[in-house]
Amino acid sequence: MITSETLGFDVSRETLERLNHYLALLNKWNPRINLVARATLAEAVDRHFADSAQLVAVLPRPLGHWVDIGSGGGFPGLVVATLLAERAPDVSVSLIESDTRKATFLRSVIRETGLSAKVHAQRIEACAPQEATVLSARALAPLPKLMEFAARHLAPGGTALFMKGESWGKELEDARSQWQFSCTPHTSKTNPNAVVLEIGDLVHV
Ligand SMILES: C[S@@+](CC[C@H](N)C(=O)[O-])C[C@H]1O[C@@H](n2cnc3c(N)ncnc32)[C@H](O)[C@@H]1O
């Protein structure tokens, strides 16, 4: 069960109800379409919900358009959308996921929980540029590839939040051979070897 304690900060009863409804749907759909690795389902509250929730604490108050790419079962984008509905209702959230079964799952969660996020069932490379003020991704691609996606979908002055495992230092080095950018690594609250990379000022070299 998801509580304010498991998320690490206080949220309203309505937000907890939405998140627990989402968790129930994840448990129901996962055996059919593998939204998350089966081995991680029992630990979904920490591995997926709390891990995703930490992103809303990284930026003081994001305004505008938050876009999550390669959302899969909605991590981190749909958790962010649920939290921002309470904390920053002026932010619109879009999710890009090319697998149509996963996109159908995302739309079902949005409908059943009464959220207003938009789902693009398209490839990130083919989706119209989103002018995102914040772009997020977890477990999608190596950093140089993520930079290409960011160049397409970030608005000028926008920020990317990329969740990376322990190879992040090497990936950062690889990305710096092709891109100029500012980067602040935030140690993950759920895994001391992982980081959230806060990236801005992206320019192709
Ligand atoms: C490993 S999963 C990670 C899902 C989720 N972000 C998470 O951390 O649980 C990667 C997801 O990205 C989607 N994906 C991969 N390449 C994509 C692309 N070029 N355009 C859109 N979606 C893509 C896949 O369908 C898959 O659902």
From TrEMBL:
Annotated residues for binding of S-adenosyl-L-methionine: 70, 75, 124-125, 138
Magnesium is among the record's keywords: no
Subcellular location: Cytoplasm
Record GO cellular component, one term: cytosol
Ubl conjugation listed as a keyword: no
InterPro entries named among the record's database cross-references: rRNA_ssu_MeTfrase_G, SAM-dependent_MTases_sf
Alphabetized UniProt keyword annotations: Cytoplasm, Methyltransferase, rRNA processing, S-adenosyl-L-methionine, Transferase
Catalysed transformations (reactions): guanosine(527) in 16S rRNA + S-adenosyl-L-methionine = N(7)-methylguanosine(527) in 16S rRNA + S-adenosyl-L-homocysteine
UniProt-listed Enzyme Commission number(s): 2.1.1.170
GO molecular function, one term: rRNA (guanine-N7-)-methyltransferase activity
NCBIfam families: rsmG_gidB (TIGR00138)
PANTHER family on file: S-ADENOSYL-L-METHIONINE-DEPENDENT METHYLTRANSFERASES SUPERFAMILY PROTEIN
Function summary: Specifically methylates the N7 position of guanine in position 527 of 16S rRNA.
HAMAP family, alphabetized: 16SrRNA_methyltr_G
Stated family: Belongs to the methyltransferase superfamily. RNA methyltransferase RsmG family.
Entry protein name: Ribosomal RNA small subunit methyltransferase G
Gene designation: rsmG
